[in-house]
Every structure is written in structure tokens, then in C-alpha cells.
TrEMBL record:
Pfam families associated with the record: NTP_transf_3
Official protein name in the record: Nucleotidyltransferase family protein
Domain MobA-like NTP transferase: 6-165
Species the sequence originates in: Thiohalobacter thiocyanaticus
Record key words, sorted: Magnesium, Transferase
Amino acid sequence: MSRPVGILLAAGQSRRFGTDKLLHPLPDGTPLALAAAKNLCLALPETVAVVAQADSAVAGLMRNAGIPVVVNAGAEDGMGTSIACGVRACDPVAGWVIALADMPFIEPETIVRVAAALTDKQVIAAPAYVGRRGHPVGFGAGYYEALAQLVGDRGARGIVQEHRDRLHLVPTDDPGVLRDIDRREDL
């Protein structure tokens, strides 16, 4: 088996933001989703981006950056379907580190440390900043079936809760693990 694969969830609807937040430029001009993708790829060169439509601007951004795109035709059904779609698109791997495209401030080193914590196929790993669990969340290869069958908008939260005894928190001083951009004022 290889090392974990990064899965960037970029199929969201941006309802609270008002426009497509994933295309919104950060102060340096980089679109939000592309910044998140670059950080994930720096940590895990084997990364795929899950998008809602093959011909969307977000899909084009990812392709132009050299990131393979997986289209989730059921994206409107929620994050769970995007996780399942991304996991099923990967060959057998040592696990997955699932990152959100609206969290562009996570340092690549934090992602590396989460991936490194996947020491066996039954481990779940997540960063913890000032005592709060953040993102991205890593899953060992033993969670393939559970992840590949996800539906709905809860993502993998139920898997983490069900296996909380297997959750390894990785302490970090990276506040980006908690900085989720949902509304314009979050920037």
C-alpha cells in the first residue's frame, strides 16, 4: 500500500456566502479553493478534488493546477456523497486525508502530521488546536467500506463518533485547522 491520499471536498453549494466562495480571491488573489488545494498537494502529492460539475470553474481551476478531478453527480445530496465519491475513485491506499476546500489556511505541515498519524488501518486522526478538534480528518484504510457508503450532509462525523476510541488527536499550533469560511465575514 502507498501513503494516504488527499481528498479535497470542493462540491459545496456556497449558500451562506452568497456567491461561489470557492472562487473568491484571497488577499493574494488566489481563489479560496485553489489555496486549500495547493496546501493539500504540498503535503500529499496524491490528491483528488471532488467537484459538483465537470465543466464548472472550480473543476477548471483544479485541472489547471494538475489536480485530478472526480465529479460527484449527487453533490446536492450532501458532503457524505462527495466523501464516498472521492474514496471510491482512489486505488487501494493507506488511507485518506479529507480536507475542505473552504479551509485554505491549514498549513501543509499540519496535513503531513495528520497523514503520518495514520499508523494502521483502523486509526482516525485529526488536528487539535487549543483543545478543539479541527480539519482535515484522516482515516486509515480499514474505513473504506464505511466511507464509500456515506450519504447525506453529515459527512464522516458519524464514523468518527462511532470509532472515537480510535481517534488520534494531533496537537498543533495551526489556527487554520478551525478556520472554516462559510460567510464573507469569515474572511
